[in-house]
Structure formats: C-alpha cells, structure tokens
Amino acid sequence: MAIEKKTKEAKQLPVRDLTICEATQQMLEKARLDGVETAFDRAANMKACPIGADSACCKHCMMGPCRLNAKDPYGKVGVCGATIDTIMARNFARMVAAGGAAHTDHGMSMLDLFREVVNGHIKDYTIKDPHKLESVAQSIGIETQDRTLKQIATDLYNELERTYTQVEGEIPFAKRVPEKTLENWRKRGVVPRGAMREIMELMHRTHMGVDQDYENITLQCSRTALADGWGGSMVATEISDILFGTPSPVGIEVNMGVLKENQVNIIVHGHEPNLFESMIESVNEPSLIKEAKAAGAMGINLVGMCCSGAEVLVRHAIPHAGNFMSTETVLVTGAVDAMCVDVQCIKQGLVKVAECYNTPLITTNPRCKIEGATHLNFEEHDPKACTDNVVIKAITRFKNRKAKIQIPRKVDIGVHGFSHEYINYMLGGSFRASYTPLNENIINGRIRGVAGVVGCTNPRTKQDWVHVELVKELIKNDVLVLQTGCSQIALAKAGLTTPEAAHLAGPGLKEVCETVGMPPVLGIGSCVDNSRILIAASEMVRTGGLGDTIADLPVAGCAPEYMSEKAICIGQYFVASGVFTVFGTTFPIIKETKFYKHLFQDLEKLGFGKWGFATSPYEIARLMIGHIDKKRIELGIDKARERVLMDMSDRRDIDAA
C-alpha cells in the first residue's frame, strides 16, 4: 500500500539527519522505496505551531482560543484577562495532570491485578518475589513477623489503595521520603493526599476563572506530580516486582537484528507487563510451537519494543527491537508477523504501516483502541485467551507472508536490570548491602555525582544522538548514569551499557566500574521505573555524608528527547523532590517571563530542585555537571581526598583504635 502522491512529493530529509540508528536508517530508506510514510516524514512536513510550542495559547473556554505574542508576552491578555503567566501555568499544569493520570492509572491497574491475585481470583499470576513483598510492607510500617504472605499482601493492598483514593492525609510512600525533604514538603503544602484528589483539584484549578496565580498553580502541580512519582509510578514498579520478580542484571540483545526470518516474529509494544508476561507463556505453549513449525517456521520469536519491552528486558532478557521512534520502521522489515499493543506511546500511524506489510496490529486494552486495528480484549482472569489468539494470528500471517523480508543485520548487546535492590547488593554484598561505597566514592571524588538520563525519542530531534553524546560527556567526567525507558535502548545500541564501556569513563568512575564489574551506565527499567531513581536518591541521603535532603545531593536529571505529557509530570516530580532537571528538544514556556523564572530559579530557593533547558547534548552536560559541582562545593567535598598507600604499621594503628 503506497502513500498518496502529495506525501511522496513532500520534503524528505536525508535519513542520516533523522537518526543515528543504522537499522532505522536502513528501514527508512526501504520505507521510501515502498512508498510508506512514517512519523519522521510527518515531522519533516508539519511545523510545530510556534504559539502552541511557547504555550502562549489558551483554549480552556469558548471565549477563545486566545493567542498571545511570545515576542511581546505582556503586550496583551486573554479575553478573560488571563496573563501570559497564568496561561502558561495552566497549560503546564494540565500536562502534569494528564501525565500523572497516565502513570497513576497504570499503577492502579497493577494494584487491581495484585488484589485479585492475593484474593485467589486470578490463578495465572502469582507472587514471585515474597522478599520484595515483605520489604515494601516494612518500608511503610506494616508488620511482617510471624505473619503469612497473604496477611502481609492483604494489608499492603489496603494501604497502597490509599495512594489513589485517599482524600486527606499523606500517601503511604511518603514514609520513604528523607525526613528533611518531607519536612519541606509539609511546610510548602505539597505532600500528596491521594492521586485522584490531586489530579481532580489541579484540573479544577486550571478551569477558566479559578486559580490565576502561577505560583499557587505550581504548588498544586508539584503536589500532583509527587502523587505520581512517589505514588502511582512507585506502586506500579513495586507491585510489578512483587508479581513478576525484582530485576537483576542480564545481558540482552537489542536492535532490529533480533528478528528472525525463519521464525514467527511477535512484537509486544506498550507499558503494562501483565500482557507481556502472558505472551511469554503463550509463545512457549507446546501446541502453538507445534503449529508454528507445521506452518514452516523454526519456532516463535518474541521481541519487545518501547517500555513493555524494557519491563521484560530487565526480568527475562527478552530481546528488544528498538525504542519509540523505531516502532513504525520495524514493521517495514516485513518480518513482523504480529504487533500487539496495550497502552501509552502507541502511534496511530502504526495502523497504515502495518497494513502495507500485511502485519496484524492488535490492540488488547479497552482504554486503547485504534481505528483500523484488530482488537482482542486482554482479561487478566483468562489472559491466555487473548495472547494465544495473538500467536495464532501471527502464525497465520507467517504462512501467508507476501512482503519482501529485509532485516537489518544489526544486533547490539546491553546489560540491564540494576534495580535499587541489586545496586544495594552489588555495592555491599549479601551481608553488608549498602550504598556506603557509592557515597564514599562520591565524597572522595572518584565519582563526581549521579545523573538520571531518561525518557523518549522525538522526531524533532535526531533519534538517539542527544542521548548518546550527552551520556558520553557525563561518564567522561566521572558522572555515574542511571537510565530508564527509551533512553536506555539508545545507549544499549551505542554499546554504553556493558562493563566494557568503562574505558570511556573518566579515571575515577572507570576505577569504580572495573572494581565492581559494572557498566558506567545502569539501565533500570521502563519509564514508570523512574521511581527506582527516587528510592536510590533517598537511600543516598539516608546513608549519610551527602546532606540531609535530596536537594543537597550532587545529582541531576535529564530527558533530552522527551515528547509526552508523562515526561513533563516526571520532570516536575523530580524537581519537586529536589533534583535539577534539564529537558531538551523544546520547552513549553516563554523565556524570561515570571513563570519561567519561577520554574528555572525560584523553586530552588524554596528547597525544591529547578528546571533547566538546552538542546545541545554538550550544553546539557555542562549544565548538569555545573550543578553537580555546585552541590559538591556546598557539601565541602569539592576537593578529592588524597589516596594514601597504607603499610602494616598504619593498619595496626587502625586496628588498635
């Protein structure tokens, strides 16, 4: 199926200007020969609205839409009198509310599944990590000694349900927040009560004629975002670990070369791990394997993409074909026999690309149906009824393949699965699991600081390039990098997530990596797993020596190619937690307005973190390293301790003391 002639004649940029991923480049060339349009083409031929990009447009009532001038932001106001700061704050807040709703709804789904498993109503899933169950329960004050797993799990469900439904008080995981950070939240009135209440209140405040003070709106933005990071997202991560297993490092294959021409290739793309976990069962079903072989296949090849792929990548070492901006181009290989999706980050454009190659695009979640796609409803009480059917459709497509198969012969290796628990073990061992070695190496200067580089890929930016160049700069300057989501796939393709990548790190970080046997870049899961970074930051504070709050730590965060409202919410919950957070590509605020100064300067004065923005990976690195160095100076650790070689008399003196 070719695209329309007018699209063929539209602007086409050289593929090397669109992505550094060789496999994606190859498939973009094939797509153009096949007459198939992708998001890269649409981005090149659709300019972003300059007024909308600056968030200078308000369409929240029928007196508008009102368009203000970014070049003269205080030259006029909206019909109701709303200033540019009110309009931008409302727009920003609604992105936080939508992004927070996406994550908290995902978390609620995981909690619903947990309840049904605990009550025995769902038999296909079980509690795979009872130790994680007990540790999570203990972290929020639930008694575990001399109690059954069901008793503990029931209490945990009842407690975590408050994360969503509570209308007063503090969400359960507020107990995990460092004391001084929580003290500041209480002082500012931003401790989340319950996610439903915070999102509802934020949407109310941003309605026409309600909250018209950008500072006041920002406080509720923070409260809502924190209900995501320390609530919905954290619940999703912890429950996923309890049900499906806590990740530990595994070596995995990434890139489109993981597809196999002689096998039935099934891709799962989306965000909720329960679908993928059932798919793993289905592709290993002997009767379905027999059917695939009867169709002429050597077997069934299950592959992940985007964050669903990242979930099972860190738990089961399932191969991963690519991140968000490769989800259309992977279909161009002609080798995909079915793509199965659930929720979030799923382009509607997948339907037409799939049609061109006779690939079934199958939606599975009632919250996400797509016109033109096949819908098979996934029901946790009988999950294989859906996933077995997906496999059958894929086998049928394999038997009737018509598209020319062209699989890029590109496979890269990454090591991922560095959960908080494993980092604790990796640094301290089984009997003395601790973050002390990390803190000590930050204090003595071997590690300059820690950076979270996370998030999506965006067709307005050269795919993967900013992620890769930024991380190279950070590790070269002795900054340890934590990664989630599509970013870690970009880094895996670049070979930066293996222990061998330590040779690209600065001398201090290299020494630590070689001693521990770890990469300088630690992949920790999907985008919802940013909550693992919050837990790690809290543990660094509790371990001691690096200040009393998260805002004291020599850490920084970045989403260099972000593209969704979820990312804005993630950024705001990191800022509200105390982290300097830099975004790339674009930022929906006019520079030098009062609201801009509030987010980029004033929040830090209130004991929070602050926002930053830059498009160049080298400028982003400069901002992040500059902030880390500033925090080192404030902590009095800006000068590395001298390393002294000890003789036996020195050791005897220590023993005597």
Give a topology summary:
Blueprint: H1 5-8, H2 22-34, H3 39-45, H4 50-53, E1 57-58, E2 66-67, H5 84-118, H6 130-139, H7 149-165, H8 179-188, H9 195-205, H10 214-244, E3 250-254, E4 264-269, H11 273-283, H12 286-294, E5 300-305, H13 306-316, E6 336-341, H14 350-356, E7 361-363, E8 374-375, H15 384-399, E9 412-416, H16 420-428, H17 436-443, E10 449-453, H18 465-476, E11 479-483, H19 486-493, H20 507-516, E12 521-523, H21 530-543, E13 555-559, H22 565-577, E14 580-583, H23 594-605, E15 611-613, H24 617-635, H25 648-656
Parallel strand pairs: 4-5, 4-6, 6-7, 7-8, 10-11, 10-13, 11-12, 13-14, 14-15
Antiparallel strand pairs: 1-2, 3-9
Helix pairs in contact: 5-7, 5-9, 5-10, 5-22, 6-7, 6-10, 9-10, 10-21, 10-22, 11-15, 18-24
Please characterize this protein's 3D structure.
This protein is α/β, with parallel strands linked by helices. Helix 23 (594-605) links the parallel strand 14 (580-583) and strand 15. The strands form four sheets. Strands 12-11-10-13-14-15 form a six-stranded parallel sheet, with helices on both faces. Strands 5-4-6-7-8 form a five-stranded parallel sheet. It has 25 helices and 15 strands. The radius of gyration is 25 Å and the shape is globular. It starts with a helix and ends with a helix.
